[in-house]
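Each lists chain and fold; for instance:
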Amino acid sequence: MRWGLAALLAVLLAACSANPAPVPPPAAPVAARTATELATGWQFRFDDTLTPEAAAALADTDWQTVALPHTWNRLGEYRIGRTDATDNRQGKGWYRLRLDGATLPVSKRHVIEFDAVGNLADLWVNGRHVGSHAGAFSRFRFDVTDFLDPAGPNTILLRADNSAPVSGSTTQHIVPLDGDFFIHGGIYRPARLLHVAPSHIALDDHGGPGVYATPTIVGGAGKLAVRVKLTGAIAGQSLVAVLRDGAGRTVAEGTTPLTARQGEVSLRLDVAAPRRWNGRVDPYLYRLETRLADGSGTIDSVTVPVGFREFRVDPNTGFYLNGKQLPLHGVSRHQDYLGKGWALAPEDHARDMALIAEMGANTVRFAHYQHAPDWFDLADRAGMVVWAEVPFVNRPSNDGSPGSTELVANAKAQMVELIRQNYNHPSIVTWGIGNEVDLDVVTGRAPPATDARPLLRELNTLSHAEDPTRPTVLADCCEATHEGAVPAGERPRQPVLTGISDLMGYNRYYGWYYRDVSDLGPHLDRMHARYPAIPISVSEYGAGGALSQHVEDGAKHKIAHASRMHPEEFQNWYHEQTWPQLRDRPYLWANWIWNMFDFSSKIRQEGDATDVNDKGLVTYDRKVKKDAFFYYKAEWSDAPVVHITSRRWTVRTEPLTKIKVYSNAPAVAVTFNGKPLGDIACVESICEVRDIRLTPGANRAVATARFDGKDVSDAVDWTLIQP
């Protein structure tokens, strides 16, 4: 099954399952948990000098009224130089919310839940410090029951601190310390107040759901091991687990009576012949409803997704899903939008997933941090195979050490949060433990003693302990990239990372940052020969593409990656040369383009943009699909594709040009200024007519191909201006 953008977006925006029928809501629970969404009523102030006492006492007129999700940062513009649209402040932002305790349900525990705060969060309720959370990407919760006045007004105060993580700063021990992306400050994902009975499914398990379901398939039969963590559960209560299929029918059920106060309960469910979660072809989902009950009914309940699937990764033949070889080809994605920063709405996430699915990808790398809960749900429903990773990037310290005790503890805490919060998603097949953590040593920005390998090994061990069912992976920047081109004595120092994790990803930019694009395939062959027992992938590859910059022949353009010239035609040529090298090497278990979307980065002053990494196949505002998007759509998708390139190069000064079309048809019929040029054969999705002479003034090229008896056409208009 293949979805076009409109169809998939409609499905995802409606939050429907990819299953044949929607899952009906369960019967209304008796005294079960409820939630108060904390989206409105917030006041905001950016101020590095405030104290909690001063913030609580400020007049309403000293605050800005905001709604969640919210960030004060906006970064990235398609122009040269910054304007007032840019807000790259780093420091402390304060949020204040007044809450009437009389509106809260009685006889409940009240737990405040934040889906993410960037980067260091501190919470006060009625002047009392409740707790802190370090890390910009994970869900966290605090039980605030004993801090609230249940009959009167309450003041909730949160400080979000995204100070630069330099030595001596408040964030110096929080990963990531660096990276080619900007840490946005604020309560940039939703927040809510959960109301639960004193006996409930645990909410204090590192932001996790408290319910962990492990599906396996044995001889065609399904087994579901369920582990539930409990708080305040007592004898006389029971734990009920109900597995429902995509139509809402009960397919398995189990009950475990509690005979004493218990903190954890395990049970098993059997499913005779489970329908498998089978990627893009059939992303079938079950739902596990877990209820804590007593004689009067349900006390608390949690529902989590379940997908029965088997996968394995072979170092010679790649990835297998449910026993069938599945070549994985996809993209990486950052979570920011032009003008919104990280404060995304559900429809923003849905639009992103729809665009990725439209292009024909079947895998997404969630770079370089834990993404929003919506994004994991969308991946499950769209059938995307997922690499999810912890934000350990570039280096482990600022002082040249392998990492402070505090930083190591923080990285491990974020690893646990990533795994527990997302354990139940069938789309995830691997946990990433680091990205380019060797980069600063290789480039000389950090001394050799800044060795990330000890922390990588700890994260690898921790990941296996948390989840024995999934392999680990890491992304390396540099190993052996200069072999054969630079004498051994002149090569940068390279700490070898291959072998620390179960799987390997290589971020490789041949033809962009170094050497020639044709060097990629031979390099990968050498790495495969060097590590024959380790499955390897290309976790990043790509090139910048500026929509306002053009050249006649991308192959002849000498790229300077850090320059102000990133012509779109070079990006096209780069991908045309790179993808076949990857496609034709079946030992690669996956390949991910860097990146699906342009994204913000304060270190980038390149192409026609400021503070933007322009390697995306779609623009930062998601309004324009670059030419290279259609090259991959023609290669990966079954949907009809006819796309004429260089369409934005509308005004020309040279009369001689070419017409290049991306299409998955065997041939396209091309006309130019109304004159037929014949049927042009398409070789590996590229159909090209050279030596086209433009006439002064308006020119029009049209390409048409026939798919299932219907014509699909594309047209472009170019104007030749006489010199």
Notes: Residues 1-30 have pLDDT under 50 and may be disordered. Residues 401 and 479 are 21 Å apart (CA to CA). The longest strand covers residues 221-231. The radius of gyration is 27 Å.
